[in-house]
């Protein structure tokens, strides 16, 4: 066996020089790892492993051509050598400038891109050592030479507050500011008055008790709600959404920039908005006491939670109250007398809303809708954007109330336009792959939980029953996490293929046009439809635009999620830097062949490396989500409660290191 390993190593070394390959060439996108190796991702077939020595100058994200190595040289995955770069992914790199007298280097902020960029003295611009900069690549790396470039922008000075988040934003190709033409168009639109002529062609709801319920710091209020009790005992729920499409015209500068961004990105104290603030926080925001143009979905809902009638129309509202989640929750949960008196004119409406939200939630649960009630981090930053406290984000009665109202509106809109057979953008969540359900079944068996199901025909109702079984147990969060990892990612599509997690046949995103492009696109389709403006030519144009918007929005959403995770990891590591040497109780949240992830009660997660466990040599048992000691048989498994000591934290690497106590 050892002779065979030695032969493989020798053959692999020879490969570097002789370039002995199988003769098969493939193309794909290179995703590099922080350690220098990477994988070439393919649309079909297994990914191809690329060793650091076989990169041939390719950078993270490049479209490359790969020579496949003979199968006997592979260890676990397909292996290859990059032959050439077909298309470079980046023309610029964001990173930290390391300055010498006659030259310097820019060290990329994205650790997957481990190719430093050489900068000659004449291209320093005014950058100083330690500054975060943008460097334009003038020469891409080759096998034996570094990339070269010139500095085009200083993002932040060394030590400047918020510099890390600014770098994160620019490294993903985003900007907090907008091009001048976009700003000019937004400014002009923000000054438009709502005319009597415009009001006359809409349903006037300015005397209706429409209220907004949002977070205390929210400034872009794009949804308002109203409620009434009908004589037949049914509820009349109104969901009123800012008519952003009235101000953002199709194919204008604003629209093109909004499509390019796809969505707003929320990075703790900073926001990269989809639309300029004069619109998102101004004329499009449903601020209290001012007339606003809206698109309304009014639904008659019976006491069993079924929508028995609905209407979709253009409207104008005047919000009666800008409420926050905590106040509404305190009214419904604690009957806070002071708040009840303050909101006396809408108190009955709030109580009625609470009633209906409970009915809708019950109906959804009955159908099997999954509700992953994870603890989300609440990270408090000081004025220098340094994290001073990390806790759990509360998800109270009012948060759930608004969630239920938005869900039922999105579902109603999607079903209405599905039957009209118009081009549309749906929110799709496919059922899990069979192999993922088989793995989940084996994992649950380790907790003594039986998943009584055919893996080929899983229904969310079965999974929901498992979540109910583990509710309140120490391993609840772990089971929920593993179950979520078994799910596919939701995406936007022009095909109505249902939402598995919600157990909805029809679903779309209609309620947030200020911060999501699909919602804005849907609003345009709705308005053209209800105003009788659909023509064959327009239908063809819309069909093309929805395909494009669905694809771009799915991509930008994934980028936004990645950035939000990165920002959170960065700030958590920064927070833990001042807690090195302290001990904490936690729960094992992940097990790999190189380490054990432990999550603390405040959601901070760090890793205990297996080689730091000195009492034994531990083997990884993948299917059982655990490691076991060869001599002691000691087991560390997913969900186990442990005590750790913090030994290191690196915001740059988004990494926190623990040792087991």
Fold and architecture overview:
The strands form 9 sheets. The protein has a 5-stranded mixed beta barrel with strand order 1-2-3-5-4. Mean pLDDT is 90; it is low at 1-19. The chain is built from 15 helices and 31 strands. The protein is an alpha+beta fold. 31% of the residues lie in helices and 28% in strands. Helix 2 (163-171) packs antiparallel against helix 15 and helix 14 packs antiparallel against helix 15. Strand 1 and strand 2 form a beta hairpin.
Overall pLDDT level? 90
- Gyration radius over CA: 28 Å
Number of DSSP E strands = 31
- Major beta sheet, strand line-up: 1-2-3-5-4
Number of helices: 15
Main beta-sheet annotation: 5 strands, mixed, barrel
Percent of sequence in beta strands: 25-35%
**Unreliable segments of 5+ consecutive residues:** 1-19
Provide the structure class.
alpha+beta
- Helicity, in percent? 25-40%
Cα end-to-end separation: 37 Å
Envelope shape: globular
Features:
single chain; 661 residues; alpha+beta; 5-stranded mixed beta barrel; 5-stranded mixed barrel; 15 helices; 31% helix; 28% strand; globular; disordered N terminus
């Amino acid at each position: 066996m050892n002779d065979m390993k030695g032969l493989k190593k020798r053959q692999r070394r020879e490969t570097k020089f002789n370039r002995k390959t199988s003769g098969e060439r493939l193309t794909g996108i290179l995703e590099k790892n922080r350690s220098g190796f990477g994988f070439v991702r393919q649309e079909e077939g297994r990914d191809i492993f690329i060793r650091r020595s076989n990169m041939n100058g390719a950078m993270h994200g490049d479209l490359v051509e790969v020579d496949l190595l003979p199968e006997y040289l592979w260890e676990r995955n397909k292996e290859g050598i990059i032959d050439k770069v077909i298309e470079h992914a980046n023309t610029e790199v964001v990173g930290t400038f390391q300055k010498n007298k006659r030259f310097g280097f820019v060290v990329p902020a994205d650790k997957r891109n481990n190719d430093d960029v050489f900068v000659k003295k004449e291209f320093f611009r005014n950058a100083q050592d330690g500054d975060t900069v943008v460097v334009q690549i003038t020469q891409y790396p080759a096998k034996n030479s570094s990339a070269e470039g010139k500095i085009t922008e200083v993002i932040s000075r060394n030590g400047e507050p918020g510099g890390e988040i600014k770098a994160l934003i620019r490294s993903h190709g985003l900007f907090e500011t907008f091009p001048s033409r976009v700003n000019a168009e937004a400014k002009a639109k923000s000054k438009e008055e709502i005319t009597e002529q415009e009001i006359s062609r809409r349903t006037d709801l300015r005397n209706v008790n429409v209220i907004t319920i949002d977070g205390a710091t929210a400034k872009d209020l794009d949804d308002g709600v109203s409620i009434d009790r009908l004589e037949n005992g049914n509820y009349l729920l109104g969901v009123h959404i800012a008519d952003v499409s009235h101000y953002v015209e199709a194919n204008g500068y604003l629209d093109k920039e909004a499509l390019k961004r796809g969505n707003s990105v929320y990075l703790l104290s900073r926001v990269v908005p989809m639309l300029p603030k004069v619109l998102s926080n101004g004329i499009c925001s449903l601020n209290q006491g001012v007339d606003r143009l809206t698109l309304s979905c009014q639904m008659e809902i019976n006491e069993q939670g079924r929508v028995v009638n609905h209407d979709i129309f253009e409207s104008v509202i005047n919000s009666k109250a800008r409420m926050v989640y905590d106040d509404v929750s305190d009214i419904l949960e604690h009957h806070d007398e002071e708040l009840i008196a303050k909101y006396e004119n809408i108190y009955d409406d709030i109580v009625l809303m609470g009633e209906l939200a409970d009915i809708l939630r019950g109906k959804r649960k009955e159908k099997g809708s999954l509700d992953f009630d994870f603890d989300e981090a609440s990270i408090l930053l000081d004025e220098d954007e340094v994290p001073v406290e990390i806790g759990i984000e509360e998800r109270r009665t009012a948060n759930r109330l608004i969630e239920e109202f938005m869900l039922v509106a999105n579902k109603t809109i999607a079903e209405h336009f599905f039957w009209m057979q118009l081009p549309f953008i749906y929110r799709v969540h496919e059922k899990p792959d069979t192999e993922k359900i088989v793995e989940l079944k084996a994992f649950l068996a380790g907790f003594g939980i039986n998943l009584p199901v055919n893996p080929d025909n899983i229904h969310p109702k079965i999974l929901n029953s498992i979540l109910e079984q583990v509710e309140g147990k120490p391993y609840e969060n772990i089971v929920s996490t593993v179950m979520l990892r078994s799910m596919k990612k939701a995406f936007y599509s022009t095909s109505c293929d249902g939402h598995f997690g919600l157990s909805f046949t029809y679903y779309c995103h209609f309620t947030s046009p200020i911060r999501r492009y699909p919602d804005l696109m849907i609003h345009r389709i709705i308005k053209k439809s209800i105003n009788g403006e659909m023509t064959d030519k327009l239908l063809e144009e819309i069909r093309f635009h929805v395909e494009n918007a669905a694809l771009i929005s799915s991509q930008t959403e994934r980028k936004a999620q990645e950035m939000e995770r990165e920002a959170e990891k960065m700030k958590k590591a920064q927070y833990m830097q001042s807690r090195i040497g302290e001990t904490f109780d936690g729960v094992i949240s992940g097990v790999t062949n190189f380490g054990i992830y432990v999550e603390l009660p405040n959601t901070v997660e760090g890793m205990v490396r297996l080689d730091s466990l000195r009492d034994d040599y531990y083997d990884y048992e993948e299917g059982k989500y655990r490691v076991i000691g060869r001599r002691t048989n000691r087991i560390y498994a997913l969900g186990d409660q442990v005590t750790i000591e913090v030994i290191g934290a690196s915001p740059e690497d988004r990494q926190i290191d623990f040792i087991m106590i």
